[in-house]
Amino acid sequence: MLLWPLLTTVFLFISGLPVGAYKILIFSPRFGRSHVKFMGAVADILAEAGHNVTVFLPIMSPLVTTNGTKGPVRTITVPTHPEVMRWCSDTSFIHNGWSQKTASLSGLLAVSFQNFEIHRFLNKRRDLQLTSGMSDMFTLACESVLEHTNVLEELKAEKFDLAMMEIFDGCPIGFAKFFCASSFLFCPEISEKNRDF
């Protein structure tokens, strides 16, 4: 009879420990404040559940100063190419993107290419430049992050169990593979994003 309360106490103690915690890497470029806050909230929830969470934040926009996290989460930042920072400092591309007729990324691209077809005859390429400019910006940011070999090797040594990311380009998938994450998960903040896969 005395064994039952002891076993109950031991079980309750053990169940409160973070047994089976995973090492999770969240790839969250400092590109847009809402995206960083979203991924930071995901990191906080996972950390509160007992997981070991690291958020990797390549700094693309000097206007985004938050890491998005509030809890016990490790954050690592690296600067990207100065041209990326300059481009992201120009708020007109954000305004142009959100002033289109749609708020979804796939819709934004569709509207941009429709507008391009109309403007092509007038030699106006503003809308296509927005989408191709963003692609160029993310590519340049990815290339410049690769120059931080000491940080990348430090992250690789962590041997993460899971990598989580939003997908703006293919860069996060390459990093997830490089960091030896056995699994990766896409976390789109935009609900329309699932149509792109």
By DSSP, the count of extended strands is 5
**From the helix content, strand content and strand pairing, which structural class follows?**
alpha/beta
Main pleated sheet: 5 strands, parallel
Strand content: 5-15%
Residue runs with pLDDT of under 50 for 5 or more positions: 100-130, 193-197
CATH homologous superfamily annotation: Nucleotide-binding domain of ferredoxin-NADP reductase (FNR) module
The CATH first-level class comes to Alpha Beta
Give the proportion of residues in helices. Answer: 40-55%
Task: Indicate the overall shape.
Answer: globular
Give the radius of gyration: 21 Å
CATH-defined fold name: Rossmann fold
User: Total domains, how many?
Assistant: 1
Element-level helix/strand string = HEHEEHHHHHEHE
Note the gap between the termini.
58 Å
* Architecture per CATH nomenclature, i.e. the level-2 architecture: 3-Layer(aba) Sandwich
- Tell me the strand order in the biggest sheet: 3-2-1-4-5
What is the arithmetic mean of pLDDT? Answer: 73
- Our count of helices gives 8
Task: Walk me through this protein's architecture.
This protein is α/β, with parallel strands linked by helices. It has one domain (21-196): 3-Layer(aba) Sandwich (Rossmann fold), CATH 3.40.50. Helix content is 49%, strand content 14%. It is built from eight helices and five strands, in the order H-E-H-E-E-H-H-H-H-H-E-H-E. The protein has helices at residues 3-15, 33-48, 82-89, 92-98, 105-120, 126-145, 149-157, 171-178, and strands at residues 23-27, 52-59, 74-79, 162-165, 183-186. Helix 5 packs across helix 6 (126-145). The chain starts with a helix and ends in an 11-residue tail after the last strand.
